[in-house]
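New to this. Help decode both lines:
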Amino acid sequence: MPAVDRAEGEVFARGVGLDGTQGYYSLLIVNKDSPIHSLDDIIKSPGIYTFGNGDPNSTSGFLMPSYYAWAKNHIDITKQFKRVAVGNHQSNMVAVANKQVDVATNNTEDMAKFAKSQPDKVAEVREIWRSPLIPGDPLVYRKDLPAEIKAKIKTFLLTYGMPEAGSGWEAQKATLNGLTYGKVDASDNNQLIPIRQVMLFRDKLKLQDDANMSAEEKTKRIGEIDAKLAELEKQVMSN
């Protein structure tokens, strides 16, 4: 994101995983025997369930669910849940599997790893909610490059490792696989919107917790963030 915002960069493509995924997702998981089957089941049951939240520095374990699951539904987790614990992805998965918490955050990448390393535990959990896509690695070129140069770069990378690349495409494919990419797909700056939303939300949380800022200044700056979030939401709806 800094390359786009501060260095006149432009997203034009993104790597696609070996399994065809264009990124990964934040999850809410419950025990397989849980009566919870959707986010709505939680929202309708304040004070009933326990929650395993992620580390505040984690995008998928904390920021994505904090914004998309809770803030957008006007949920204060300290009031919604009977108890809130904080852990990493593995401890949250194990806590759900062992019925130590009712619901917890996780993500699709780590759950795929746990399915190989701890299949017995993963068999005890199921997903009830997933976030918007957390995009895969963006590829960026300078916004002010001549159009013909942009076209050449884009064509080269979008066909790299594909039969249409011509002679040597198999070797290119092996190179991509070594980078854990299956191929490269076209993209644009809109890929960054979900990340922009959660970063703004993170800034809002910091402001709300700032005891040294005047109420007037805090209200003003939170209002500015809310306006930016509203504008991003309009962009999401128009795409």
The CA atoms of residues 59 and 198 lie 8 Å apart. The chain has a mean pLDDT of 93.
